[in-house]
Automatic annotation (TrEMBL):
Entry keyword set: Lyase, Pyridoxal phosphate
Source organism per UniProt: Lacihabitans lacunae
Every Aromatic amino acid beta-eliminating lyase/threonine aldolase domain range: 46-421
Family to which this protein belongs: Belongs to the beta-eliminating lyase family.
Lyase as UniProt keyword: yes
Family matches, as CDD domains: Tnase_like
Cofactor dependency: pyridoxal 5'-phosphate
Pfam families registered for this protein in UniProt: Beta_elim_lyase
Full protein name: Tryptophanase
Gene3D superfamilies reported for this sequence: Aspartate Aminotransferase, domain 1, Type I PLP-dependent aspartate aminotransferase-like (Major domain)
PANTHER family the record matches: BETA-ELIMINATING LYASE-LIKE PROTEIN-RELATED, TRYPTOPHANASE
Length: 456
């Protein structure tokens, strides 16, 4: 059949609360025009993030009851460790309360002043943890990935020529190379097996470990299966096993492709680094068999990691994203093409040509989508990644995007039809949108807590 249906039935429901446009105006103002400041119940469709927002399965909820809460040596930990070893194959598995805790542990050991960590594109928490350690974070995204309207299969790839040149010059300062699959900040675009292999070969040449930021490993594997020659008949598990076989370690937010609401881990092969990591873990997270998690969380992750490998789920997942993408593209809304694994990204610079980067075109669109239809999205552009030079002049990132991230197994097709309708209405009146200025901001990850004012 041509219709791809949700491969699940709904067993438990949660109400959506409806607000009027004028109520939303007040709520947004009270939140300092920052969508992170809104209460969840004041949002109709929440596409702020796909992180920790998944609907768990009946099996996972059963696992929650079955969780073993032993402080040391929990059965749930051994199930968690076993599935990670089966899919990812690393020798050491270190649970953490979420992905950034794994990053914090890793970079507090290998980072620090005078070190540089390259990546295809660093995610915001990865970059923040690297910079917090005193190290520098460098993005080496391939050229295609910087062109939002170009259709290509693997726009998340690392530019291997740049990586080679970079390591030639800086190898003494580089403790490891990261590769983010799929490339979240680069638009949820996949990385090909070929690229993973090439990055691996370059790392080998310079004797550098390669770590995967593997939050969306299953979505990446699905794209490899449908787009890369030679993988069409392989199972998702086999593709995952091959991807991880080229890496020396990984960081993971279980809030993404482990289908849970909290959790993460660090996994790696090196014994010394694992010992040092566990030393930090016991101080900041907890004992090595629970990290920052309850036994029940480990249990739910173990089950989620099995469920995410289901091809029917991944097909529905990727199709939901492309379905919204097609509706927007047909109506002329500029989006990052092709659509990626977990989100549709509006190309805010093309959508609002009249708003310059330093006036945050993405923020203008994100606020408008909330006011019009109660949709919460996330700016990924000058608010999140903008910098200032010595003279206080704004340095814009490569892309100005608004991300509509899809929680896993939460919304149905009619929710997505509604989202499309709201975006099209805002698009029709795009000339009326105004830029924003920041009135207050913290030193790190400013997008979470900054306040904004509309520029009159
Ligand atoms: C979400 C995410 C992280 C951080 O994980 P948290 O669980 O939110 O701390 C790191 N890298 C990527 C690519 C992510 O998407």
């Amino acid at each position: 059949m041509k219709t791809i249906i949700e491969p699940f039935k709904i067993k438990t429901v949660e109400p959506i609360y409806f607000t009027t446009e004028s109520e939303r105006e007040t709520k947004l103002k009270d939140a300092g025009n920052n969508l992170f400041g809104l209460k969840g119940k004041d949002v109709i469709i929440d596409l702020l993030t796909d992180s920790g927002t998944s609907a768990m399965s009946a099996q996972q909820w059963a696992g929650i009851l079955n969780g073993d809460e032993s402080y040391a040596g929990s059965e749930s930990f051994y199930r968690f460790e076993a599935i990670i070893k089966k899919i990812m194959g690393f020798k050491h598995v270190i649970p953490t309360h979420q992905g950034r805790a794994a990053e914090k542990i890793l970079f507090s050991i290998v980072g620090g002043p005078d070190t540089i960590i390259p990546n295809n594109t660093h995610f915001d928490t990865t970059r923040a943890n690297i910079e917090f350690s005193g190290a520098k974070a460098v993005d080496l995204l391939n050229k295609d990935g910087k062109n939002p309207s170009l259709i290509a299969d693997f726009k998340g790839n690392m530019d291997t020529e740049l990586l080679e040149a970079f390591l030639k010059e800086n190898h003494e300062k580089v403790p490891l190379v990261m590769l983010t699959i799929t490339n979240n900040s680069g638009g949820g675009q996949p990385v090909s097996m070929q690229n993973i292999k090439e990055v691996r070969a370059i790392c080998k040449k310079y004797n550098k470990p390669m770590f995967l930021d593997a939050c969306r490993f299953a979505e990446n594997a699905y794209f490899i299966k449908i787009r890369e020659k030679g993988f069409e008949n392989k199972s998702i598990l086999e593709i995952c096993q091959e991807m991880f076989s080229y890496a020396d370690g990984m960081t993971m937010s279980a809030k993404k492709d482990a289908l849970v609401n909290i959790g993460g881990f660090l996994a790696l092969n090196d014994d010394t680094l694992a010992m040092e990591s566990r030393n930090v873990l016991v101080v900041t997270e907890g004992f090595p068999t629970y990290g920052g998690l309850a036994g029940r969380d480990l249990e739910a992750i173990a089950i989620g990691l099995e469920e995410i490998l289901d091809e029917a789920y991944l097909q529905y997942r990727i199709r939901t994203i492309s379905y919204l993408g097609e509706k927007l593209t047909e109506a002329g809304v500029p989006i990052l093409l092709p659509t990626g694994g977990h989100a549709v990204y509006i190309d805010a610079a093309s959508f609002c040509k009249h708003i310059p980067a330093e006036e945050f075109p993405g923020q203008a669109i994100a606020c408008a989508l909330y006011l019009k239809g109660g949709i919460r999205s996330c700016e990924i552009g000058s608010v999140m990644f903008g910098k200032k030079d010595e003279n206080g002049k704004h340095i814009a990132p490569d892309l100005e995007l608004v991300r509509l991230a899809f929680p896993r197994r939460v919304y149905t097709q009619s929710h997505i039809d509604y989202v499309a309708e709201v975006i099209l209405e805002v698009f029709e009146e795009k000339e009326k949108l105004k830029g924003y200025k920041i009135t207050q901001e913290p030193p790190f990850l400013r997008h979470f807590t900054a306040s904004f004012e509309e520029i009159a």
